[in-house]
Write a sequence for this structure.
């Protein structure tokens, strides 16, 4: 079989599965345009998930929109970076210079759509462009899927809240700044900003993976609403903390952002340790596919914790085990040992039900081709 072992060998690298070779992606602060829309930014999805009323939406041409991006100069393509997606109340999505060192410290990339402020109506464009930014930057940079956070100031913080609550499969946390605190049953929030409760499947995902750093100031007119929203998040068992600065209605200062990102990533590490423990149990039950997924997630989020390094090592060992089985099947087919090869395919499908879908499909197509040739007498 052509290309024997190449797939398997590609899995034997010492880097984690998510790591890629260093690329020449742009760094620093710059303006960007994107061409490919996120399927989730379609009017139909926004209408279904975020209660956007179709008659109040207006299509936008993504290629004509611009985005402000900041990538720390330390980015080298080898380490996963978080993504902070900002929705402003004003027209600019630019990253404040005071945030640059904080983003570098926590390994985050910033993106904010321009012309996405409170005067941009209807709001589907503001939500859609945030989703589009995630979709495109994930293709250009090594983005950690467990650290994609929504943020926004004032009315942009409301958009941030919608993104957090209705797209938990995209955003794993949020940092709304001086926003109305529009949690679904927050009585302190103006009815104009209130949202319905997410659907059960969305809410389950929020409970599984989301965390919230609610940010306000001592003299902000939205402070009480932000406090109330934070308490309701905690009431529902969600990791949440209120960060309060000394000023009025303005964006968080660098220290607040630093503390908020520390909190959000800390919550992720706490969950990652539990994921690691579950992965150990899964492997004991011979659920190696689930165990590998757990080990990889724990390794991504565990930082320098000893158990995270153990998770990385166990993940590497399981990837090698998977690659070895794939290679054995390839060798059986090359040697025309179709019986043993077919048995190993069933083993691959049984042990690795999610990871092996594409390879099993490929191998079964080869078997069908062999049978077809045998029946035709070739």
């Amino acid at each position: 079989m052509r290309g024997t072992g190449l797939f398997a060998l590609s899995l034997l690298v010492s880097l984690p599965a998510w790591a890629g070779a260093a690329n020449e992606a742009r760094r620093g602060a710059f303006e960007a345009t994107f061409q490919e829309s996120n399927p989730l930014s379609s009017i139909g999805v926004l209408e279904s998930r975020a209660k956007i009323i179709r008659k109040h939406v207006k299509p936008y041409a993504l290629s004509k929109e611009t985005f402000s991006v900041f990538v720390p100069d330390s980015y080298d393509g080898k380490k996963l970076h978080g993504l902070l997606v900002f929705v402003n109340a004003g027209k600019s999505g630019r990253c404040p210079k005071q945030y640059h060192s904080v983003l570098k410290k926590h390994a985050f990339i910033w993106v904010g759509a321009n012309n996405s402020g409170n005067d941009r109506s209807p709001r589907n464009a503001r939500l859609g462009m945030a989703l589009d930014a995630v979709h495109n930057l994930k293709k250009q940079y090594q983005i950690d899927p467990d650290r994609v956070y929504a943020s926004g100031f004032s009315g942009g913080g409301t958009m941030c809240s919608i993104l957090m609550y209705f797209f938990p499969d995209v955003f794993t946390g949020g940092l709304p700044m001086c926003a109305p605190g529009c949690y679904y049953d927050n009585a302190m929030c103006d009815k104009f900003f209130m949202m319905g409760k997410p659907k059960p499947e969305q809410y389950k995902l929020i409970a599984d993976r989301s965390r919230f750093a609610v940010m306000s100031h001592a003299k902000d007119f939205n402070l009480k609403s932000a406090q109330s929203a934070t308490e309701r998040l905690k009431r529902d068992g969600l990791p949440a903390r209120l960060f309060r600065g000394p000023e009025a209605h303005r964006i968080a200062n660098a220290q607040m952002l630093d503390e908020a990102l520390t909190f959000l990533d800390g919550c992720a590490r706490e969950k990652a340790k539990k994921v690691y423990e579950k992965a150990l149990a899964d492997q004991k039950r011979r659920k190696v596919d689930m165990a590998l997924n757990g080990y990889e997630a724990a390794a991504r989020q565990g930082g320098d914790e000893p158990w995270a390094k153990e998770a990385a090592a166990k993940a590497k060992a399981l990837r090698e085990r998977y690659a070895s089985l794939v290679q054995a099947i390839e060798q059986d087919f090359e040697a025309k040992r179709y019986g043993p090869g077919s048995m190993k395919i069933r083993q691959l499908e049984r042990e690795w039900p999610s990871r092996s879908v594409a390879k099993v499909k490929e191998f079964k197509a080869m078997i069908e081709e062999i049978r077809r040739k045998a029946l035709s007498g070739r």
